[in-house]
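== Polypeptide entry ==
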Amino acid sequence: MQILVTGGTGFIGDALLPALRAAGHELIVLSRQTLSNTTDTTYVRALTQLSAETQVDAVINLAGASLAGKRWNTRYKNEIVDSRMNITGELILWIESREQRPLVLLSASAIGYYGHHGDERLDEQGSRVPGFSQNLCEEWESAAEKAATLGVRTCLLRLGVVLDSDGGAFQQMAPPFKLGVGNWIGSGRQWLSWIHRTDVVAAMLFLLADDALEGAYNLTAPEPVTSKGFSEAMGQVCKLWISLPVPAIVMRLMLGEMAQELLINGQRVVPDRLQAAGFEFMYPDLDQALAKIVST
């Protein structure tokens, strides 16, 4: 297939693009960066660079400013929203204008879609509790779902915390542990719904390949852990001298609303639909995932 990827130069895209090439696909990558084309990848800065004759069989939409990129203020929250809604809206208009439309759209979302539910186990039918992240994800998914009305099979990827050695959340979480200090936030009872980046990529290829799969899918490992459970698992792969909590009030003072939404609250999200479809995780539990990540 020829696949159009937005956000393909980010943390997930860095692993996804090589996997797509290895599977024999040709790529068109929409990026704000100026990059040189290769034999199997064409880089464009705008959808208008694609001619009417350019065949696109699938679209993977990963574009969006990082939720944890900086402290949230009104300006950055607007950037978070606009970076997702603008490109998704442009993609829908572009799909609608095509005489030959793509067969499938995979559009990123996040488990923030559910809001915060304490210890409640959340599958794809989980209820929603309003908040900034919840409202963002709901609007983002609603924009992407317009592709389905245009006859395009649409999968919404509700991503958990994606872990790997060379970027993303792990790079921000690991430094204290590497110094021998194990920590967790607040009570440590809040849930962390995580997934290894290898499984994110494999799940995307799985969803691309099966024409019967559509709708929302939680891209999280089958076994979420608490914040304290994560610290204990890290203690199995790092030599710790001390373990202690980071008070929630300290995180609020340092990071404001972002701390409350992303770190202090949590969600216990499980990938029921993905597993029911037959997907098998390479890293289903955190001990396996961290052992691989730390050894890399």
In short: The longest strand covers residues 104-110. The radius of gyration is 19 Å. Residues 17 and 259 are 31 Å apart (CA to CA).
